[in-house]
Write a structure and sequence with these properties.
By secondary structure, the protein is of the alpha+beta class. Helix content is 40%, strand content 19%. A hairpin with a 5-residue loop joins strand 2 and strand 3. Helix 1 packs antiparallel against helix 2 and helix 6 packs across helix 7. The protein binds calcium ion (2 copies). The site of one calcium ion has 7 residues, from strand 8.
């Protein structure tokens, strides 16, 4: 990996620079050599710092004149989409074909879809069309999936047909998810309930909260892994 290699270069150059300097010889040549090595180390390190995080490239193809509201995490989006492999242009997915020609709903920002969609479909208006280019790290990575070979960069043409408010906001999930691991533990839910009770001036009753937390998890932790995932949170919604 390029980033790892750069770091190795930095370390190697630095140690060379150090050993050149500690040789005790003070000739101009040796000093020059030392400075060249230091400069090389600095350049390599600067290069490493400049290597960007994988990003989605967004090209707006069409934007409506009127835009009442823009998409944000937690919204439900209705989209039509065509997906292509950048390498050879093969279309591997299309709502116009596969979903009986119907657009599909999904919730933005909760990793229900690939990260590239969560990042690339923010701030979008109904009626807007985008072409997004998604690097493998934000799509199906080194493994690939189905028709998508390993390490594929994907191109999607996406039309946003409609936006609905998600049943629960992304913000409240983030507020509850104290350690940012994208799932709610019993402790996090308990802490949230406690805070809510106190906010409304109710006395905190620990055993009552335990019962409440258990019943919430019984209903909402669909896969019984002991956590309420962002997805589980977004789709079921009575107690919280
Ligand atoms: Ca958590
Ligand atoms: Ca779960």
């Amino acid at each position: 990996m390029a980033w790892g290699r750069r770091v190795v270069e930095c370390i190697a150059a630095e140690s060379c620079a150090t050993s050149a300097g500690s040789g005790g010889e003070s000739g101009a040549e040796r000093r020059l050599m030392m400075w060249l090595l230091v400069a090389a180390a600095l350049l390599a390190c600067a290069g490493a710092a400049l290597i960007p995080e994988p990003e989605v490239h967004i090209q707006v193809l069409e934007k409506p004149f009127l835009c009442k509201r823009k998409t944000r995490s937690g919204d439900m989006l209705l989209v039509h989409s065509d997906g292509f492999l950048q390498d050879n242009g093969t279309r591997f997915y299309s709502t116009y074909v596969e979903n009986s020609g119907q657009p599909v709903w999904f919730t933005l920002g909760i990793r229900e879809v690939i990260k590239g969609w969560d990042k690339g479909l923010q701030d979008m208006c109904v009626g807007e069309k985008r072409k997004i280019t998604v690097p493998p790290a934000l799509a199906y990575g080194k493994e690939g999936k189905g028709k998508i070979p390993p390490d594929s960069t994907l191109i999607f043409n996406i039309s946003l047909m409609d936006i609905r408010n998600g049943p629960r906001s992304h913000e409240s999930f983030q507020e509850m998810d104290l350690n940012d691991d994208w799932k709610l533990s019993k402790e996090e839910v308990r802490a949230y309930l406690k805070a809510e009770f106190m906010k409304h001036g109710n006395p905190v009753n620990e055993s009552h909260h335990d019962v409440l937390v258990s019943s919430i998890f019984e209903k909402e932790d669909e896969d019984s892994d002991g956590y309420i995932s962002a997805r589980e949170f977004t789709y079921i919604h009575d107690e919280l």
